[in-house]
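Example record for the data management plan.
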Amino acid sequence: MNEKFLYTKDNIKIAINHYESNCDSVVIVCPGWFMTKDSKAFKMLSNDLNKKFDVVTMDFRGHGKSGGAYTFTAKELFDLREVVDYAKNECGYKNIYLLGFSLGGALVLLYGSEFQSADRIIAVSAPADFMKIENRMFMPQAGIPTLFQKFEPKRWLTIRAGFPFLKKIKPIDVVSKINVPTLFIAGEKDPTVFPWHTEALYNKAVCKKQYKLFKNANHAEDLYHDFPEEFLNLCVEWFEKA
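Corresponding structural encoding:
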């Protein structure tokens, strides 16, 4: 794995981990709010995916080793666009696959609606509308994974939030513009982004699509943590479909 740094059009430094195994396809992994490329879950996921594909896992602005402050999807398309351009133009990958979690899931949908650079998309626990995220942090499903599965104080200290109420595009308003195959994944007991978000996005999408609800599952990367084999097989099969 090689760590590299890119710069966006608005001059923000973006850190990536590039896992290379001479594949002609790459999965760009997009963590959500408060998660980074060096989080334990995303390092494990990246290594597992790297058995089938090359992988680029990124820190969005305001996270980890990237610069700037996080704007909750208002400006992060600059970050993802730079990473896709790196994969396509500098590295020359034949196939570009996007895998986003939570707000990272919202961003891969926003990217797919505006640009034609990705070949397949997976959005996990993506909100239909940022202002309608439930975020029931008092629920046990939210607190227990944070305290035990994701207890990474060093990572928490790298998070820099910007103003959360900048004008944003709602994924539900643009998901119908996506024209590449898109897989929508939700957790039945997600305490942060309730599964109706994913159902609404799936229903409004007009591309080739699939919806998967993980029973008794929580939020975003928790699905991979709790159901690793099923989650990985689902992602690999979706990316490898002709």
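Summary line stored alongside the record: The chain has one domain: 2-240.
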